């Protein structure tokens, strides 16, 4: 058997809704499973709950916690992943009952960020987000580390910070914010230089795993890492692209958006998302083969509004059309397959038309 497969921890995932009618958890399970897979976890069991009244000790009901405990025991799972944000004490209380590490959605995403960040800027941003998340939960997370050791939800800079006190965490946050502020100043200088040279900037945005990096590679003939994983790429990449005489652009690939993205993440990744705010045009890449694509369009629109980029010129780019038969609902944009090079020339012409004609 493959050693990598043997090392993957087994996870039970818990989808949570709050006072909703006729809840269908299938999409929540699908996305949480994809996040777990990206974090090198194998999902072995699923549980859902529509919470009518929040339990202050565990958020979800005590009966549901017992159900999770029984499923963990039955499947011999190593970790429980809950698809909402929990306080440190709530995480600790659930752990005391189920007997294995419990992490929430934010911890899972931070863990993936810690795995994916490759540049100095990306690592600084991940560290800042981890520390901001850790600060109000320091004692509970430290207790969890003592009980269960390292692993998913404890990777990256956060792992070495759990034992330090809150004062030191605050000092580290201030230090990181200063370093990121310097990076923002450097980026502003580069941006001013681009504007001085009148080079138009185009940012690729969209839900994570929609195919942004594959499109970037197709247009620029670059070799940016792209995979069928959530948050396959985290760091911003820029390339100069020639689209005709006096028609050169800077194309920027940005971090993917996702539903229920905590505000602390948006603050921490502001330097990355600033590329989106400063762009002359946004290419909103949409996975046309995803049955939930309309809801994910709404998520991207919401995040764009939160970062102040909702009024930018936007071209909707419906990707992965090689996987679907009926294009008729996709009437408001360009249809492409970045993987198969379909529609790329038409997209380039549309960029030229919007920016230069």
Count the DSSP helices. 14
Q: Any guess at the CATH architecture of the largest domain?
A: 3-Layer(aba) Sandwich
Shape: globular
| SSE ordering | HEHEHEHEHHHHHEHEEHHEHEEH
Distance between the termini: 58 Å
Question: What does the model show?
Answer:
It is a single chain. This protein is an alpha/beta fold and 357 residues long. The protein folds into two domains: 3-116, 3-Layer(aba) Sandwich (Rossmann fold), CATH 3.40.50; 198-355, Rossmann fold (3-Layer(aba) Sandwich). Helix content is 47%, strand content 18%. It is built from 14 helices and ten strands. It has helices at 3-7, 26-38, 62-75, 88-98, 105-116, 120-134, 138-148, 157-161, 166-196, 212-220, 263-268, 270-278, 293-306, 344-355; strands spanning 9-18, 41-51, 79-82, 101-104, 200-206, 237-242, 248-253, 281-287, 314-319, 333-335. The strands form two sheets. It has a six-stranded mixed beta sheet with strand order 6-7-5-8-9-10, with helices on both faces. It has a four-stranded parallel beta sheet with strand order 2-1-3-4, sandwiched between helices. Helix 6 (120-134) packs antiparallel against helix 9 (166-196). The longest helix has 31 residues, at 166-196. The radius of gyration is 22 Å and the shape is globular. The chain starts with a helix and ends with a helix. Residues 1-5 have low confidence and may be disordered.
